[in-house]
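Dock tryptophanyl-5'AMP; give full complex structure.
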Amino acid sequence: MARILTGIQSSGSNGEVHLGNILGAIVPGIELSKKAENEAYFFIADLHSLTTVKDAAIRAQNVRAVAAAWLAFGFDTDKNVFYRQSDVPEVCELTWYLSCFTPFPMLANAHSFKDKSNNLADVNAGLFNYPVLMACDILLYDANYVPVGKDQKQHLEMTRDIANSFNHKYGETFVVPEPMIDERVMVVPGTDGRKMSKSYDNYLNIFLPEKALRKSVMRIETDSTPLEEPKDPDSCNVFALYSLLANKEQIAEMRNNYTAGNYGYGHAKQALFELILDKYAEQRKFYDVLMSSPEEIDAKLLLGAKKASDTARPVLNKVRKKLGFRT
Ligand code: TYM
């Protein structure tokens, strides 16, 4: 049995789960979780989100939104383990231990830190230590495979380095995990063409009510080629996003429309909006139902936390023993 593990942060200011999270983590993760030979540990990284979101009510709402997204896409919480990171505080303890083995330059080189390092006053120690917490999320549960988007590749390399160096010093302790990066998806672009991200405010949240969703699709940036002129699909954000969701025929049709002319970016955006509504109709409906019964989501997460703790405790004890702490 292979153990698949991945997490999504409950960050953002308004409970957003974006299309990047869905295509980069939720859809491929659920596909893997359905295989009989796999057991999936999927969690909501609310401790990571504390590096940016200090308001408890907002974080709680975000946790629900991320949980509802996993469930709306069909994650089976009976077969697998579904939990909130902070419900298994053992991860914080392991983070301290492994922090004491993580070289400063490794963390100083992490993108998550480097992106913010031009304004050090804004960097808290949690953000700096973020990759160690992420390594512990994985190592605490003996995960074999970690499906993530390409942006997390460096964190996975650090996790492997941290595990290997501990194993080298203390003998086999941690399972060294393999990243699983779906090369078909790569990085989902945001409305401005950069990586879709909550921190860039350039994301599409497919669960928004229709009107708000349409508004966010309409703000995708395009150039100023007039409606009647032919357009280059390969340099257009709208086409890039459409291509990630549409089938071959739909993509070919839109490509033709672009190159033929008399097809405006507004038309393409409308087609993308309608495609999202159509493709995700079921998930959108289910998400709304789930969000209106938060106690049901919380109950599922609590049950998952119990299962997750049962796995975490022996791994942590093994580490404590090796380090000479009482178990
Ligand atoms: P987070 O919350 O930023 O993103 C969650 C997942 O979504 C993927 N993703 C994307 N994929 C494609 N295109 C994009 N534009 C895009 N944006 C996000 C991410 O690659 C990720 O798979 N540190 C992690 C959360 C985490 C975690 C873990 C993941 C904490 N502990 C342990 C795996 C294992 C993060 O901030 O992801």
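Observed: The first helix runs from residue 19 to 33.
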